[in-house]
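thread from #wetlab-drylab

HS: before we spend reagent money on co-crystallization trials with uridine-5'-diphosphate, can we at least see a predicted complex? here's what I'd submit
DV: go for it
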Amino acid sequence: MKKVILVAGGAGFIGSHLCERLSNDARNEIHCIDNLVTGHADNVPNSPNVQIHRLDVNTLKSNADLVDVKFDQVYNLACPASPVHYQRDPVFTWKTNVLGALNLLEIAERDGARFLQASTSEVYGEPLEHPQKETLWLHVNPVGVRSCYDVGKAAAETIVTDYGKQRGVNVRIVRIFNCYGPRMSLDDGRAVSNFVFQALRDEDITIYGDGSQTRSFCYVADLVDGLIKAMNSDLLRGPCNLGNPAESSVRDLATRITTVSGSKSKIIFKPLPRDDPTRRQPDIAMARELLHWEPKTILDAGLLATIADFRARLPKFADKTQGNDKVIEE
Ligand code: UDP
């Protein structure tokens, strides 16, 4: 059956992989919207069933924008997600999270579309339980450097949930745990992208703190499977974790990346950023049971693919030629 699908943030890292996967089914008509602040039009697959619209979810109007299209599904992945990007303009990040979700919910309501909100493990903050289950309440600093993102995403969860309960929009929320893979921005300051970039140039690998903090890294292809399953499921009733339960310390990640890439880099230590969570590991029992989903890609295999992609892009990054010329200006 033909589906008309809106992917907000479709020119970003995860959004573009989602557009690509959805575009493999010729019956899907995909509309990618992106303000191209952190995303790149070049990320979006050049496919006859994908259109890119340069629109900002903050200012999107359900009675004026995209009115000629009736959507069956709306995915909201629109927000800068790496600390360096989302902390650059915290007010804009907060608005993107909350007003963006609201504006997209209005489009879903207008069209009777299913709605999927990409939330984050960041809503657990400094977690009081380990691993993190969906029932855990947030434990975040409301006035810290990460608040525009973690509190913003939590506020978005509230408005999404209430649009479901009060206004009958068919909503679901997924909480994404540290996703990585090909097409991550080389300069987004995240652990995987920084370490791979540094390793490929034999530069020092910068560990913040002593590297004992943990994250659980999920390969992007696995995550995209989970997003599509969540969108098509009628069983999800509340937020659902999507991540790889294999937990790794940041120091272990750095060592693996130098080994897998054959780098001569050495590890150096820098101060830990404020409010940096010490542990992060998803409990994915809900996704296993309701979506029959679990990640398949082990870290070394995912890192190999990521390193190959970064290696291919390094020369391009040097002259910053990523263009935005496939965009429909609206
Ligand atoms: N990190 C690091 N060196 C870097 C970049 C990040 O040690 O060059 C650490 C960061 O302080 C955090 C972990 O790696 O403890 C994961 O950081 P990332 O930004 O990838 O994800 P998030 O903190 O949002 O989970």
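DV: Residues 120 and 176 are 5 Å apart (CA to CA).
HS: ok that's useful, forwarding to the group
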